[in-house]
Amino acid sequence: MKSIWEIINKENNFLLVTHKNPDGDAIGSILALYYYLKDKKKEVYLYLPNGIPHIYQFLIFEELQIFDGFQNLNFKVAIFLDCGDIERIGENNAFLKRIPLIINIDHHPTNTFFGNLNFVDTKVSSTTEILSNLFFRNKENINQKVAQCLLTGLITDTGSFRFSNTTTNSFRTAIKLMEKGAEVAYISQQVFERKNLSSLYLLGKALLRLKLKNDIAFSFITKEDMEEYHSKIEDTEGIIDTLRMLKEAKVVIFLYPLSPSKTKISLRSKSSHIDVGLFAKKFGGGGHKEAAGFEKEGRPQDIVLNVVKDLLEFIMEYEPLFIDK
Fold first, then answer.
1. What's the CA gap between 256 and 6, in Å, rounded?
2. Tens digits of residue pLDDT in 52-64
3. Which residues have C-beta within 8 Å of that of residue 35, sequence separation ≥ 6?
């Protein structure tokens, strides 16, 4: 960790990278480090395969320098944030061959340690918690912009401090970030109370299709739904967290289309005995014990029952006592 901190402070030319379809932790961590490095007068660019979802655009405090993967720019260091493996940034990753040093900062148990230097801590709630610890441990005086980004990632990845990945250190970190000017109420309002009409319509569709089988709740959104409501992928964010409210469900599956032929499968486990991260890993995905995902060929409506069947078989193999048969 010391060498990573030394590189961050010594080098002057960085590319910051996160994964496709970024969540609050991905956006919070990449923007926090961006503002920190810019404040240190470093040359920094962001690589965001899908841009910044509208619900996180309140974290854009200044004009951002964006790298699209094709510009003729050279970087000495690439820092991946909240990215379990290189494939998660998409197929347009040839530019990485020109970057001599790759640093990998993440908290996912399925991380593949793809960096030249890896700082992977699976015991913390989020990548933003790792970054916060890095700043505070090195007595770095971060500004309000950085604190706001970090607290956003902490709040979203812990489900507003409701999920089991919330620790006493998560709360201590949040307090320190608030002391630096981060605002819990403002962040919560921006993230959770500004849904657009399209995302609420999709939520309605998903709720109407919600089914329960052997303690597994599942639902999906189709390409036709997305077209009808002029939706973007980011409009699906948060739907699975509403589905998981079903009290009888121990595991929740939510599927939505990434393209006409590819589907994203999101998973949530409400049982401490059912590891959906391990299940997702079987299909080339990743994540945590309680929140994970993977991609699969096919349309959501065509593959949903097969995914339920596969998950049930997985549970019966590893944890048969914790599911109703």
1. 42
2. 999 999 999 999 9
3. 61, 62, 143, 145, 146, 149
